Amino acid sequence: MATNSPVTRSPAAVVLAVGGLYVAQSVIGGITWAGLPAVMRDRGMALDEVGLLSLIALPWALKFLWAPMVERFRLPPAGRNRSAVIVAIGGGISVLGLGVVGLIGPGLLGPVLACLTIIALAAATVDIACDGYAVEALPRKQHGWANAAQVGGAYLGSAIGGGLFLIIVAAYGWSVSVWSMAALLVLLGVPFLLRSRAYAAAETRTHVPSLASALRRPEIRRGLLAAALYVIAQKTAMIMIGPFLIDAGLDLAAMGLINGAGSMFVGLAAALVGGALVRVLGARAVLVIALVLQAGALLFFAASGLFPDIPNWALATVAVASSSGIMALGFVALYAQFMHWSDPRQGGVDFTLFQSMDALVSMGGGVGAGYVAQHLGYGIFFAGAGVIALATIPAIAVVAGRSVARETGRIETTRPAALAQIGENP
Known about the structure:
The protein is an all-alpha fold and 426 residues long. The protein has a single domain, classed as Up-down Bundle (Growth Hormone, Chain: A), CATH 1.20.1250.20. The protein is built from 16 helices and 3 strands. The chain has a 3-stranded antiparallel β-sheet, with no helix packed on it. Helix 4 packs across helix 6 and helix 10 packs antiparallel against helix 14. The chain starts with a strand and ends in a 27-residue tail after the last helix. Keywords: Membrane, Transmembrane, Transmembrane helix, Transport.
Protein backbone atom coordinates (compact mmCIF):
# COMPACT_ATOMS: atom_id res chain seq x y z
CA MET A 1 0.00 0.00 0.00
CA ALA A 2 1.48 3.34 -1.03
CA THR A 3 0.45 6.55 0.67
CA ASN A 4 0.43 9.66 -1.52
CA SER A 5 -0.20 12.12 1.33
CA PRO A 6 0.82 10.88 4.76
CA VAL A 7 -1.47 11.73 7.66
CA THR A 8 -0.44 11.74 11.28
CA ARG A 9 -2.97 9.93 13.50
CA SER A 10 -3.09 10.00 17.27
CA PRO A 11 -3.36 6.37 18.49
CA ALA A 12 -5.39 7.46 21.51
CA ALA A 13 -7.89 9.31 19.30
CA VAL A 14 -8.19 6.35 16.92
CA VAL A 15 -8.80 3.94 19.82
CA LEU A 16 -11.46 6.26 21.25
CA ALA A 17 -13.17 6.51 17.87
CA VAL A 18 -13.29 2.78 17.12
CA GLY A 19 -14.09 2.02 20.77
CA GLY A 20 -17.32 4.00 20.43
CA LEU A 21 -18.37 1.81 17.49
CA TYR A 22 -17.57 -1.39 19.37
CA VAL A 23 -19.70 -0.20 22.29
CA ALA A 24 -22.54 0.65 19.88
CA GLN A 25 -22.43 -2.76 18.19
CA SER A 26 -22.52 -4.51 21.54
CA VAL A 27 -25.44 -2.36 22.72
CA ILE A 28 -27.40 -3.80 19.80
CA GLY A 29 -26.24 -7.31 20.64
CA GLY A 30 -27.06 -6.85 24.33
CA ILE A 31 -30.61 -5.74 23.50
CA THR A 32 -31.13 -8.63 21.10
CA TRP A 33 -29.63 -11.55 22.98
CA ALA A 34 -29.93 -10.53 26.65
CA GLY A 35 -32.52 -7.78 27.08
CA LEU A 36 -35.26 -8.80 24.66
CA PRO A 37 -35.40 -12.52 25.68
CA ALA A 38 -36.01 -11.47 29.29
CA VAL A 39 -38.71 -8.95 28.25
CA MET A 40 -40.45 -11.54 26.07
CA ARG A 41 -40.47 -14.17 28.79
CA ASP A 42 -41.65 -11.62 31.36
CA ARG A 43 -44.64 -10.97 29.08
CA GLY A 44 -45.48 -14.66 28.89
CA MET A 45 -44.07 -15.64 25.49
CA ALA A 46 -43.17 -19.30 24.97
CA LEU A 47 -39.54 -20.41 25.12
CA ASP A 48 -39.53 -21.68 21.54
CA GLU A 49 -40.60 -18.19 20.43
CA VAL A 50 -37.79 -16.68 22.50
CA GLY A 51 -35.38 -19.07 20.78
CA LEU A 52 -36.33 -17.57 17.41
CA LEU A 53 -34.31 -14.49 18.36
CA SER A 54 -31.23 -16.51 17.44
CA LEU A 55 -32.27 -16.16 13.79
CA ILE A 56 -31.23 -12.50 14.04
CA ALA A 57 -27.64 -13.78 13.99
CA LEU A 58 -28.08 -14.75 10.31
CA PRO A 59 -26.38 -11.58 8.95
CA TRP A 60 -23.41 -12.21 11.26
CA ALA A 61 -23.30 -15.80 10.03
CA LEU A 62 -23.33 -14.80 6.36
CA LYS A 63 -21.31 -11.59 6.37
CA PHE A 64 -18.26 -13.42 5.04
CA LEU A 65 -20.10 -13.38 1.70
CA TRP A 66 -19.86 -9.60 1.40
CA ALA A 67 -16.77 -8.91 3.54
CA PRO A 68 -14.42 -8.78 0.51
CA MET A 69 -16.79 -6.42 -1.30
CA VAL A 70 -16.99 -4.16 1.75
CA GLU A 71 -13.21 -4.07 2.01
CA ARG A 72 -12.81 -3.35 -1.70
CA PHE A 73 -15.30 -0.48 -1.46
CA ARG A 74 -13.70 0.81 1.73
CA LEU A 75 -10.20 0.68 0.25
CA PRO A 76 -10.47 1.54 -3.46
CA PRO A 77 -7.43 1.03 -5.74
CA ALA A 78 -6.78 4.76 -5.50
CA GLY A 79 -8.19 7.50 -3.28
CA ARG A 80 -9.38 8.01 0.27
CA ASN A 81 -10.72 5.15 2.36
CA ARG A 82 -14.48 5.14 2.76
CA SER A 83 -14.80 3.87 6.32
CA ALA A 84 -16.86 6.90 7.38
CA VAL A 85 -19.32 6.36 4.52
CA ILE A 86 -19.97 2.74 5.53
CA VAL A 87 -20.32 3.64 9.21
CA ALA A 88 -22.67 6.55 8.49
CA ILE A 89 -24.99 4.45 6.32
CA GLY A 90 -24.95 1.40 8.59
CA GLY A 91 -25.33 3.49 11.74
CA GLY A 92 -28.22 5.43 10.26
CA ILE A 93 -30.03 2.20 9.38
CA SER A 94 -29.48 0.87 12.90
CA VAL A 95 -30.84 4.03 14.57
CA LEU A 96 -33.87 4.15 12.27
CA GLY A 97 -34.51 0.44 12.85
CA LEU A 98 -34.48 0.85 16.62
CA GLY A 99 -36.89 3.75 16.25
CA VAL A 100 -39.33 1.45 14.45
CA VAL A 101 -38.84 -1.34 17.02
CA GLY A 102 -39.74 1.15 19.75
CA LEU A 103 -43.00 1.90 17.96
CA ILE A 104 -43.89 -1.75 17.33
CA GLY A 105 -43.43 -3.12 20.83
CA PRO A 106 -42.19 -6.61 21.84
CA GLY A 107 -45.58 -8.30 21.46
CA LEU A 108 -45.47 -8.45 17.63
CA LEU A 109 -42.65 -10.97 17.21
CA GLY A 110 -42.57 -11.10 13.39
CA PRO A 111 -42.10 -7.37 12.74
CA VAL A 112 -39.62 -7.06 15.62
CA LEU A 113 -37.55 -9.94 14.24
CA ALA A 114 -37.59 -8.37 10.77
CA CYS A 115 -36.42 -4.97 12.07
CA LEU A 116 -33.73 -6.44 14.28
CA THR A 117 -32.45 -8.59 11.42
CA ILE A 118 -32.05 -5.48 9.24
CA ILE A 119 -30.25 -3.77 12.13
CA ALA A 120 -27.99 -6.80 12.49
CA LEU A 121 -27.20 -6.66 8.76
CA ALA A 122 -26.17 -3.01 9.07
CA ALA A 123 -24.16 -3.62 12.27
CA ALA A 124 -22.33 -6.60 10.78
CA THR A 125 -21.31 -4.53 7.76
CA VAL A 126 -20.13 -1.67 9.97
CA ASP A 127 -18.10 -4.20 11.97
CA ILE A 128 -16.12 -5.18 8.88
CA ALA A 129 -15.24 -1.55 8.16
CA CYS A 130 -14.44 -0.77 11.79
CA ASP A 131 -12.09 -3.73 12.16
CA GLY A 132 -10.28 -2.87 8.96
CA TYR A 133 -9.95 0.78 9.92
CA ALA A 134 -8.48 -0.07 13.34
CA VAL A 135 -5.77 -2.24 11.81
CA GLU A 136 -5.05 0.30 9.08
CA ALA A 137 -5.01 3.44 11.25
CA LEU A 138 -2.86 2.10 14.09
CA PRO A 139 0.78 1.01 13.80
CA ARG A 140 1.31 -2.66 14.58
CA LYS A 141 2.79 -1.96 18.02
CA GLN A 142 -0.46 -0.15 18.94
CA HIS A 143 -2.84 -2.96 17.94
CA GLY A 144 -3.04 -4.06 21.57
CA TRP A 145 -4.82 -0.80 22.36
CA ALA A 146 -7.37 -1.54 19.66
CA ASN A 147 -7.95 -4.97 21.19
CA ALA A 148 -8.39 -3.33 24.59
CA ALA A 149 -11.04 -1.07 23.05
CA GLN A 150 -12.73 -4.12 21.56
CA VAL A 151 -12.84 -5.97 24.89
CA GLY A 152 -13.90 -2.97 26.94
CA GLY A 153 -16.37 -1.83 24.31
CA ALA A 154 -18.00 -5.24 24.10
CA TYR A 155 -18.58 -5.57 27.81
CA LEU A 156 -19.66 -1.96 28.30
CA GLY A 157 -22.08 -2.23 25.37
CA SER A 158 -23.44 -5.53 26.65
CA ALA A 159 -23.94 -4.02 30.10
CA ILE A 160 -25.93 -1.19 28.54
CA GLY A 161 -27.95 -3.29 26.07
CA GLY A 162 -28.57 -6.22 28.40
CA GLY A 163 -28.60 -4.35 31.71
CA LEU A 164 -29.47 -0.65 31.57
CA PHE A 165 -31.99 -1.38 28.81
CA LEU A 166 -33.98 -3.68 31.13
CA ILE A 167 -33.83 -1.21 33.99
CA ILE A 168 -35.31 1.53 31.77
CA VAL A 169 -37.96 -0.89 30.46
CA ALA A 170 -39.00 -1.67 34.03
CA ALA A 171 -39.14 2.00 35.00
CA TYR A 172 -40.41 3.80 31.87
CA GLY A 173 -41.63 1.21 29.40
CA TRP A 174 -40.54 -0.35 26.12
CA SER A 175 -40.60 2.63 23.76
CA VAL A 176 -38.61 4.99 25.99
CA SER A 177 -35.98 2.32 26.57
CA VAL A 178 -35.52 1.45 22.89
CA TRP A 179 -35.42 5.09 21.78
CA SER A 180 -32.87 5.85 24.49
CA MET A 181 -30.64 3.15 23.05
CA ALA A 182 -31.08 4.62 19.55
CA ALA A 183 -30.00 8.06 20.78
CA LEU A 184 -26.98 6.49 22.45
CA LEU A 185 -25.92 4.88 19.15
CA VAL A 186 -25.82 8.35 17.56
CA LEU A 187 -23.59 9.71 20.32
CA LEU A 188 -21.25 6.73 20.13
CA GLY A 189 -20.82 6.99 16.37
CA VAL A 190 -20.02 10.70 16.13
CA PRO A 191 -16.33 10.50 17.23
CA PHE A 192 -15.54 7.92 14.54
CA LEU A 193 -17.30 9.87 11.78
CA LEU A 194 -15.46 13.07 12.66
CA ARG A 195 -12.08 11.37 13.10
CA SER A 196 -12.00 9.05 10.10
CA ARG A 197 -13.34 11.63 7.66
CA ALA A 198 -10.90 14.32 8.73
CA TYR A 199 -7.83 12.08 8.59
CA ALA A 200 -8.54 9.94 5.51
CA ALA A 201 -5.55 10.09 3.14
CA ALA A 202 -5.45 9.49 -0.60
CA GLU A 203 -3.64 6.19 -1.22
CA THR A 204 -2.93 3.61 -3.89
CA ARG A 205 -3.45 -0.07 -3.08
CA THR A 206 -2.46 -3.31 -4.79
CA HIS A 207 -3.72 -6.18 -2.61
CA VAL A 208 -7.24 -7.49 -3.32
CA PRO A 209 -8.79 -9.49 -0.43
CA SER A 210 -10.65 -12.64 -1.43
CA LEU A 211 -12.46 -15.58 0.11
CA ALA A 212 -10.84 -18.04 -2.28
CA SER A 213 -7.33 -17.45 -0.97
CA ALA A 214 -8.59 -17.81 2.60
CA LEU A 215 -10.44 -21.08 2.05
CA ARG A 216 -7.46 -22.65 0.30
CA ARG A 217 -5.41 -22.39 3.49
CA PRO A 218 -5.56 -25.37 5.88
CA GLU A 219 -5.25 -23.04 8.87
CA ILE A 220 -8.57 -21.42 8.00
CA ARG A 221 -10.35 -24.75 7.63
CA ARG A 222 -8.92 -25.86 10.96
CA GLY A 223 -10.07 -22.64 12.60
CA LEU A 224 -13.60 -23.02 11.24
CA LEU A 225 -13.84 -26.51 12.72
CA ALA A 226 -12.54 -25.27 16.07
CA ALA A 227 -15.05 -22.40 16.06
CA ALA A 228 -17.99 -24.71 15.35
CA LEU A 229 -17.05 -27.21 18.06
CA TYR A 230 -16.37 -24.59 20.68
CA VAL A 231 -19.49 -22.52 20.05
CA ILE A 232 -21.71 -25.60 20.26
CA ALA A 233 -20.23 -26.40 23.66
CA GLN A 234 -20.03 -22.89 25.12
CA LYS A 235 -22.87 -20.81 23.71
CA THR A 236 -25.83 -23.04 22.87
CA ALA A 237 -27.39 -22.73 26.32
CA MET A 238 -26.74 -19.02 26.83
CA ILE A 239 -29.97 -17.68 25.34
CA MET A 240 -32.04 -19.70 27.83
CA ILE A 241 -30.32 -18.38 30.98
CA GLY A 242 -32.37 -15.15 31.03
CA PRO A 243 -35.75 -16.91 30.66
CA PHE A 244 -34.64 -19.52 33.22
CA LEU A 245 -33.95 -16.82 35.82
CA ILE A 246 -37.22 -15.03 35.01
CA ASP A 247 -39.12 -18.28 35.57
CA ALA A 248 -37.17 -18.78 38.80
CA GLY A 249 -38.70 -15.54 40.12
CA LEU A 250 -36.31 -12.71 39.22
CA ASP A 251 -37.85 -9.54 37.80
CA LEU A 252 -36.60 -7.42 34.90
CA ALA A 253 -34.86 -4.87 37.12
CA ALA A 254 -32.90 -7.65 38.85
CA MET A 255 -32.03 -9.16 35.46
CA GLY A 256 -30.81 -5.77 34.30
CA LEU A 257 -28.48 -5.49 37.28
CA ILE A 258 -27.21 -9.05 36.77
CA ASN A 259 -26.53 -8.55 33.06
CA GLY A 260 -25.01 -5.12 33.60
CA ALA A 261 -22.70 -6.01 36.48
CA GLY A 262 -21.74 -9.31 34.90
CA SER A 263 -20.81 -7.77 31.57
CA MET A 264 -19.05 -4.71 32.89
CA PHE A 265 -17.02 -6.22 35.73
CA VAL A 266 -16.92 -10.04 35.63
CA GLY A 267 -16.56 -10.34 31.86
CA LEU A 268 -13.85 -7.72 31.52
CA ALA A 269 -11.88 -9.17 34.44
CA ALA A 270 -12.17 -12.68 33.02
CA ALA A 271 -10.97 -11.49 29.60
CA LEU A 272 -7.84 -10.01 31.17
CA VAL A 273 -7.25 -13.16 33.24
CA GLY A 274 -7.76 -15.24 30.10
CA GLY A 275 -5.09 -13.27 28.26
CA ALA A 276 -2.63 -13.88 31.11
CA LEU A 277 -3.46 -17.60 31.29
CA VAL A 278 -2.96 -18.00 27.54
CA ARG A 279 0.58 -16.66 27.94
CA VAL A 280 1.32 -19.09 30.77
CA LEU A 281 -0.61 -22.23 29.84
CA GLY A 282 -1.29 -21.87 26.12
CA ALA A 283 -4.62 -21.47 24.34
CA ARG A 284 -5.47 -25.18 24.24
CA ALA A 285 -5.26 -25.58 28.02
CA VAL A 286 -7.38 -22.48 28.64
CA LEU A 287 -10.02 -23.72 26.18
CA VAL A 288 -10.26 -27.01 28.05
CA ILE A 289 -10.46 -25.27 31.44
CA ALA A 290 -13.29 -23.04 30.18
CA LEU A 291 -15.24 -26.04 28.87
CA VAL A 292 -14.92 -27.86 32.18
CA LEU A 293 -16.12 -24.80 34.09
CA GLN A 294 -19.01 -24.25 31.69
CA ALA A 295 -20.10 -27.85 31.98
CA GLY A 296 -20.13 -27.50 35.76
CA ALA A 297 -22.30 -24.36 35.58
CA LEU A 298 -24.79 -25.95 33.18
CA LEU A 299 -25.09 -29.10 35.30
CA PHE A 300 -25.70 -26.87 38.34
CA PHE A 301 -28.66 -25.30 36.53
CA ALA A 302 -29.93 -28.77 35.62
CA ALA A 303 -29.69 -29.88 39.26
CA SER A 304 -31.60 -26.83 40.49
CA GLY A 305 -34.80 -28.48 39.31
CA LEU A 306 -34.16 -31.33 41.74
CA PHE A 307 -33.30 -28.97 44.60
CA PRO A 308 -35.94 -26.20 44.59
CA ASP A 309 -34.54 -24.68 47.79
CA ILE A 310 -31.50 -23.27 45.97
CA PRO A 311 -31.77 -19.49 46.51
CA ASN A 312 -32.08 -17.14 43.58
CA TRP A 313 -28.86 -15.34 44.51
CA ALA A 314 -26.96 -18.59 43.97
CA LEU A 315 -28.58 -19.10 40.57
CA ALA A 316 -27.79 -15.50 39.62
CA THR A 317 -24.17 -15.85 40.74
CA VAL A 318 -23.62 -18.95 38.63
CA ALA A 319 -25.41 -17.29 35.70
CA VAL A 320 -23.04 -14.32 35.82
CA ALA A 321 -20.03 -16.63 36.09
CA SER A 322 -21.22 -18.70 33.13
CA SER A 323 -22.48 -16.08 30.69
CA SER A 324 -19.80 -13.47 31.40
CA GLY A 325 -16.77 -14.92 33.18
CA ILE A 326 -16.37 -18.37 31.67
CA MET A 327 -17.41 -17.20 28.20
CA ALA A 328 -14.82 -14.41 28.22
CA LEU A 329 -12.10 -16.70 29.54
CA GLY A 330 -12.62 -19.24 26.78
CA PHE A 331 -13.12 -16.91 23.86
CA VAL A 332 -9.97 -14.95 24.60
CA ALA A 333 -8.09 -18.23 24.13
CA LEU A 334 -10.05 -19.14 21.01
CA TYR A 335 -9.30 -15.84 19.32
CA ALA A 336 -5.66 -16.07 20.26
CA GLN A 337 -5.71 -19.14 18.02
CA PHE A 338 -7.58 -17.27 15.32
CA MET A 339 -4.88 -14.59 15.33
CA HIS A 340 -2.31 -17.27 14.65
CA TRP A 341 -4.34 -18.90 11.88
CA SER A 342 -5.16 -15.66 10.01
CA ASP A 343 -3.16 -14.28 7.09
CA PRO A 344 -1.97 -10.73 7.98
CA ARG A 345 -2.56 -9.64 4.36
CA GLN A 346 -6.32 -10.14 4.71
CA GLY A 347 -6.97 -10.54 8.41
CA GLY A 348 -10.40 -8.93 8.12
CA VAL A 349 -11.63 -11.52 5.63
CA ASP A 350 -10.17 -14.43 7.60
CA PHE A 351 -11.62 -13.25 10.90
CA THR A 352 -14.97 -12.63 9.26
CA LEU A 353 -15.04 -16.29 8.25
CA PHE A 354 -14.46 -17.30 11.86
CA GLN A 355 -17.13 -14.83 13.03
CA SER A 356 -19.60 -16.20 10.53
CA MET A 357 -19.08 -19.77 11.69
CA ASP A 358 -19.59 -18.60 15.27
CA ALA A 359 -22.83 -16.81 14.39
CA LEU A 360 -24.17 -19.62 12.22
CA VAL A 361 -23.69 -22.24 14.93
CA SER A 362 -25.02 -19.85 17.60
CA MET A 363 -28.14 -19.23 15.54
CA GLY A 364 -28.92 -22.90 14.98
CA GLY A 365 -28.09 -23.77 18.57
CA GLY A 366 -30.32 -21.01 19.94
CA VAL A 367 -33.35 -22.13 17.93
CA GLY A 368 -32.76 -25.72 19.05
CA ALA A 369 -32.28 -24.58 22.64
CA GLY A 370 -35.67 -22.89 22.72
CA TYR A 371 -37.39 -25.96 21.31
CA VAL A 372 -35.75 -28.42 23.72
CA ALA A 373 -36.29 -26.20 26.79
CA GLN A 374 -39.95 -25.61 25.88
CA HIS A 375 -40.84 -29.25 25.29
CA LEU A 376 -38.47 -31.15 27.61
CA GLY A 377 -37.94 -28.64 30.40
CA TYR A 378 -34.97 -26.73 31.75
CA GLY A 379 -33.56 -29.72 33.65
CA ILE A 380 -33.09 -31.96 30.62
CA PHE A 381 -31.99 -29.03 28.48
CA PHE A 382 -29.20 -27.85 30.79
CA ALA A 383 -28.11 -31.41 31.55
CA GLY A 384 -27.77 -32.14 27.84
CA ALA A 385 -25.86 -28.91 27.26
CA GLY A 386 -23.46 -29.79 30.10
CA VAL A 387 -22.81 -33.24 28.65
CA ILE A 388 -22.12 -31.70 25.23
CA ALA A 389 -19.56 -29.35 26.79
CA LEU A 390 -17.75 -32.27 28.41
CA ALA A 391 -17.90 -34.40 25.26
CA THR A 392 -16.37 -31.60 23.19
CA ILE A 393 -13.20 -31.38 25.29
CA PRO A 394 -11.23 -34.16 23.51
CA ALA A 395 -12.09 -32.76 20.07
CA ILE A 396 -11.04 -29.22 21.03
CA ALA A 397 -7.81 -30.54 22.52
CA VAL A 398 -6.98 -32.18 19.18
CA VAL A 399 -8.07 -29.36 16.86
CA ALA A 400 -6.57 -26.48 18.84
CA GLY A 401 -2.80 -26.36 18.76
CA ARG A 402 -0.39 -24.34 20.85
CA SER A 403 -1.03 -20.62 20.87
CA VAL A 404 1.64 -18.53 19.26
CA ALA A 405 2.58 -15.17 20.73
CA ARG A 406 2.92 -12.14 18.56
CA GLU A 407 6.17 -10.56 17.59
CA THR A 408 5.79 -8.42 20.71
CA GLY A 409 6.00 -11.59 22.78
CA ARG A 410 2.45 -11.57 24.11
CA ILE A 411 -1.03 -12.73 23.24
CA GLU A 412 -3.48 -9.87 22.96
CA THR A 413 -7.11 -10.17 23.87
CA THR A 414 -10.06 -9.41 21.68
CA ARG A 415 -13.68 -8.80 22.50
CA PRO A 416 -15.80 -11.90 22.99
CA ALA A 417 -18.92 -12.70 20.46
CA ALA A 418 -21.93 -13.45 22.99
CA LEU A 419 -22.84 -10.28 23.11
CA ALA A 420 -23.26 -9.41 19.60
CA GLN A 421 -21.38 -11.06 17.92
CA ILE A 422 -17.46 -11.82 17.80
CA GLY A 423 -14.07 -11.94 16.01
CA GLU A 424 -11.48 -9.36 15.20
CA ASN A 425 -8.56 -8.65 12.95
CA PRO A 426 -5.16 -9.75 14.24
